[in-house]
């Protein structure tokens, strides 16, 4: 199946189960406190809380939701490019019940789709159930355990082996600090060549056992004071990583050959972007991955190139879909998150031979639109502004990037490449990180990345201290403007600007340099 067929097969399945297929919500979150839409359930919060009635009969929906996890409670940015299955932007397939069906149907249908329809071998599946510690908000999920046990038994498999307990960290799902939440139960797939991990790799962040689908039993609302309020009704909220599903289905020869590790990047979700990048750069993508925690300073050129391909393709998706939803790169909050991600991508472009003379980022948009423009019409409709924005942002960062990189290299000046500079041991001075930020527009995480590649860590305490001093200066400047404006308050328009600044003080204080 192609990616598009897999998505449709998910929709068909839940249509048969009387779900209304709805469009993805915008990446601009509706809930306060979120940087970006980070899960399929975000758009349904009012239905869970009971403040609005779902317009579906029966009260069921399914969709593919555009998600970004690059900040806040769910942040996968650091893993991107290095592992096989985390992206900053991904599609989350989901099905929902709003006070309609509950655990039994959710669990049985997930099994029916994965095992019966898609043909994933049951012996490679592991289900997790919620097993709380003292003081956690809910009790052991016996109901979910019994339902899974029944299913595994039908295949002659031992439930005690195939059901794994998960604690509050992995099996109590929360969208953010507040909002609807509840215990959950997940399906994980054993990708070891012989399928003999016996559940030991579940929840261990191993790419040989991947979490594919999370079924959340929404029963509470996390309140601002840290308490959990029982909701008026019980709901189902599920999320399946679409790219992970594609990897599983496409990379295992119909689930017969697990000898090669399935990766999300070796699917037709990413391949068209890689082909375009290859065409533009003249370099070749190899689907190779470093061992977890490997020394980045010791990466081969081929490995560095592979990581760069993946990071760029991922970041292209995050940027393009955000801009298509009206979230622009900028100096504040979520806008600055986008600018940071873009600058990371541009810097990774150096690895592929791109530069100020040879920009690339905007040229990739066409490959993305070709692939996903039908599923997400907003991407197609706004492709020109997406492309223009990426081109402008790239050009603007290119003006300082090379000088900044030179400043970094001069600071590090290793005796021989790959070894940390002796002058400051393995700690990179926060003052230089601040200079890179302030003068050359290097977001802190970019400097941290450069440092990680040299075996260095940034002195973030010193960096934060300098940032705070800069904020103080901005605050002081802010006040004097206001005072002057107040002094001559009888005067007209120009001085009135002082008041406007004052009103936006909170925002202005967080402004980052261009
Ligand atoms: P993981 O433990 O792998 O980080 P998660 O538990 O954080 O995943 P959930 O919040 O349960 O993920 O989201 C539901 C599903 O979305 C997951 O089961 C997974 O298939 C998919 N998913 C989550 N994060 C990502 C990501 N960064 N990239 C791709 N798919 C993801
Ligand atoms: Mg996660
Ligand atoms: Mg997880
Ligand atoms: Mg999960």
Automatic annotation (TrEMBL):
GO molecular function, one term: alanine-tRNA ligase activity
The reaction(s) this protein catalyses: tRNA(Ala) + L-alanine + ATP = L-alanyl-tRNA(Ala) + AMP + diphosphate
Entry superkingdom: Bacteria
Top-level class of the enzyme under EC nomenclature: ligase
Requisite cofactors: Zn(2+)
Keyword Cytoplasm: yes
Limits of the Alanyl-transfer RNA synthetases family profile domain: 1-514
Family: Belongs to the class-II aminoacyl-tRNA synthetase family.
Protein name from the UniProt record: Alanine--tRNA ligase
Gene for this chain: alaS
